[in-house]
What does this fold into?
Amino acid sequence: MTAPTRLTDRKREAIILAAISEFRANGFEVTSMDKIAATAGVSKRTVYNHFPSKEELFAEILNQLWARISTEQAVSYQPDQPLREQLRTMLLAKLQMMADDNFMDLARVAIAAAIHSPERAQNMVARMGEREESVTGWIRAAQADGRLKPADPEFAAHQVQGLLKSFAFWPQISMGQPSLDSTMQNAVVDSALDMFLACYQL
It folds into this structure.
């Protein structure tokens, strides 16, 4: 019973790796489940046994890429620690995620898919958005502790993360600019923190 489980896990991993390669090379629209199956060396039926649709497979890839870095950025609110350092840890982890070539390539694929078929891409975009919740939750906890001004936590989280993306996501996605080096990452985070805390810290 143990061996088939390991084989199933290996096949699932092969499918995901093949899909990453195909999506990066050909985009979402052109990539087919047949081609993913061929690249993975498994049957098309095996692919569908693991992933009921191409959208689900793509969403799982994005989730795995995000989760890999989210584990490093998972910071619970600490009432006895400086706000700046806690938030800095989360924001730097987000910038490191945006510097990941696999993530950025697949983000381009997701955005292109959303442009061509907004309805079909809604699930992918929604599942990506769920990963933004860590900053919102942290802000909500800091507000409950009386250390941040009462304001819409989702708005505040979107605002501070937007400051990062204006330097480290959209220029790379839309204009092919290189990822930020560590010096620039620190400068962007510190500037975003200055603005956020000046606006919201009590």
User: Anything to note?
Assistant: The chain has eleven helices and no strands. The mean pLDDT is 86. The first helix runs from residue 2 to 30. The radius of gyration is 19 Å.
